[in-house]
Task: inverse folding
C-alpha cells in the first residue's frame, strides 16, 4: 500500500470562507501558468480553472478558445466542512486518484485545512513516484499559493 499524501495548513478565515476560497475561487490561487495541461500551449495556456459546486461537478481548465480539459470530478460537497474529488489530470478518468480536503475550526481561531490525496495504486508502477511529486506539489500549493491568497482576499 502506498501511503496517502497529507498536507496541513491553518489560515485566519472561518471554515465557510476557507471552503469558498478553496473551491469556488480556485482560479484566484491555482498557478495555471505552471500547473495545468495547457501550460505549454502556444496561446499562453488556460485562462481559468473551474470547480463546479456540487457532487458530480467537474474540475477543469478552460482555454481561451473554449476548450475544456478535465482534471477530476467532485465526489463530496459539504460547504464549510469538506470537499472531495477524483484527480486524473492528463489521464483517463478510470485511473483517478482521490483528494479529500477538510476544513475544521482551529483552536486559536481560523481554519485548519487538511488535504489527503490517496488511491495511488490506481496509477500502477508510477504510483510511488507520482506520490512523491504530489507531496511536494500540494505542500507548495497550499502553503505558497492558497494560504497567502486566503489571507489577502
Result:
Amino acid at each position: 500500500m502506498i501511503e496517502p499524501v497529507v498536507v496541513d495548513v491553518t489560515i485566519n478565515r472561518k471554515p465557510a470562507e476557507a471552503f469558498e476560497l478553496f473551491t469556488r475561487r480556485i482560479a484566484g490561487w491555482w498557478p495555471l501558468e505552471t500547473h495545468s495541461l495547457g501550460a505549454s500551449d502556444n496561446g499562453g495556456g488556460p485562462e481559468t480553472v473551474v470547480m463546479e459546486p456540487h457532487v458530480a461537478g467537474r474540475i477543469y481548465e478552460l482555454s481561451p478558445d473554449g476548450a475544456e480539459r478535465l482534471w477530476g470530478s467532485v465526489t463530496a460537497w459539504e460547504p464549510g466542512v469538506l470537499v472531495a474529488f477524483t484527480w486524473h489530470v492528463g489521464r483517463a478518468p478510470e485511473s483517478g486518484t482521490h483528494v479529500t480536503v477538510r476544513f475544521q475550526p482551529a483552536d486559536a481561531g481560523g481554519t485548519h485545512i487538511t488535504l489527503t490525496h490517496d488511491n495511488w495504486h490506481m496509477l500502477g508502477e508510477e504510483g510511488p513516484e507520482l506520490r512523491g511529486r504530489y507531496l511536494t506539489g500540494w505542500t507548495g500549493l497550499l502553503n505558497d499559493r492558497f494560504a497567502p491568497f486566503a489571507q489577502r482576499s
